[in-house]
Amino acid sequence: MNESDLRVVKTIRLIDQTLLNLLKTESFEQVTVQQICLEAEIGRSTFYHHYVDKFTLLEHLNNQYADKFQKIMVTRISTVTQSTSLVTLVSDLLPDKDALLILLNVHASSLSLDANFRKIISDSLASFLRDHLSTTLPIAYLQDLYVANAMTYITWSLAHGLNEDVAHFMNTTFINIANQITQQNSH
């Protein structure tokens, strides 16, 4: 079957949404393919036509949202020191907030959207730090510090809504840290 076939697209969307709905009340470990099929009102053969198992379904969802996040970060990293950059980042994520809040809390095997997001932020920040800051501090330390704060901001904002004061605080904190590093190296 053609991946762009409307029936295929609808079936995949139905399976994806069914898993997300089940994850609202059950852990990923508890969810079974049989449950997904019953809730989606599809046969097991239909499920297995699209996915090998529930892990490949989770991997598909994680990759879908990680790819979106990667595209957002490519744009955001160039504006990292602007006070509106975090607001823009979260605004771009808000349409998917329900799915993201669920998937960011699923840690199954090596499949973790939270870990994917952290790696994307860390990798994006590493190039920014190398290009814009001269420091004796370990880049890995600065990455970990920023990633922890950025993920706290992202998950908090997805759960509680956009708060420009919190975004401004986060950006100001990062800019102050960057300025402190720059001043430290000029002494």
From TrEMBL:
Domain of life: Bacteria
DNA-binding region in chain numbering: 32-51
An example molecular function term from Gene Ontology annotations: DNA binding
Signal peptide: none
Gene3D superfamilies: Tetracycline Repressor, domain 2
HTH tetR-type domain sequence ranges: 9-69
Keywords: DNA-binding
Protein name (database record): HTH tetR-type domain-containing protein
